[in-house]
Amino acid sequence: VGDPRETGWYKDRSKLNLNWWYDWGTRDQGGSGVSVMDIMEGNLAADPYYVPMVWCVKPLDQTRLNSLAQKYPGRVWLIFNEPDFEGQCGNYLGKTLENTWYQVGQSTAITYTMIVSAIKEGDPIARTFCCGMFDPVKPDRGLGFLDGLLAGLRSISNTLSHDPSWYFDGAHIHGYAGTWSPPTALQHTCPWDDTYGNGALNAGCVITNILNPFPDLMDTITRTELNGKPIWLSEIGVLRDPLDKPDAWYPVDRKDVVRQ
To answer: What Cα–Cα distance (Å) separates residue 34 from each residue in 39, 68, 102, 152?
Structure first.
């Protein structure tokens, strides 16, 4: 919970009455000298509401994942962070100019099953949620990656210890109001609200814009192994057109979004 321009705002999460929270899990901490797995274990030990994330495949210690799952049973684990975005997990999963997100998903299937197996064999009641898609409603991005991943699992199903549906207990996705296209950018649809004296986009309108595309996603999910399983919004934000840089985020009252 926070604003990318305000380091440390997330520390106020105790006042938000959240029933789960996460950080970016096993992502490299930038040479801090602290093992990312140690950071994850510290959070697991300190807070039963903490949800661990396997950010991507580097670094990835299956033995440690298995041990942590066994030691802290009953958790939801978020698998991947934006595998459909080059600047995030997509690079680690092998996205190039020559391949599609569908193909990236297909080639990720074996790695994905290895991660989930390490967790669920350590803790049979753990739940794994896939996959933190940045743009979960576009066939050439998030939906493409998910379709490819599912197709990849089905193609190796005869080599798996479990049915493909075993590897999916739910989904976690990202929701960003606004687009990168000026004619449909958020400033044309959401009014400014000065309720809290800080000038921000109306939170209710922002939430509507975040949720509007999801019926298309749900229509796809009903035809997959994720049908009927929970979907979590693990990241929300308000993008603005890149021509407005250096600030690529619209102000919106985060606390008001969380309240609603």
So the answer is: 7, 17, 35, 35
125: burial class by Cβ within 10 Å (0-12, 13-18, 19+)? exposed
For the chain, how are helix, strand and coil distributed in percent, rounded to 5? 45, 15, 40
Is the torsion defined by CA of 61, 80, 233, 187 positive or negative?
Answer: positive
Cα–Cα dist 203/192, whole Å: 9
Record the pTM.
Answer: 0.81
Q: Which amino acid is at 108?
A: T
Q: One-letter amino acid identity for 173? A: I
Q: How far is 37 from 113, CA to CA, in rounded Å? A: 20
Residue range 207-250, pLDDT digits in tens:
777 777 677 777 778 888 888 899 888 887 666 544 444 344 45
Q: What confidence category does residue 5 fall into, taking pLDDT thresholds of 50, 70 and 90?
A: very low
Instruction: Name the residue with tokens 């985020």.
Output: 249
Q: Measure Cα distances from 248 to 44, 179, 203, 238, 239 in Å.
A: 33, 11, 18, 9, 6
Residue 174 phi/psi, 5-degree rounding, is -105, 145
Of these ranges, 32-41, 187-196, 198-207, the one predicted with the greatest mean pLDDT is: 32-41
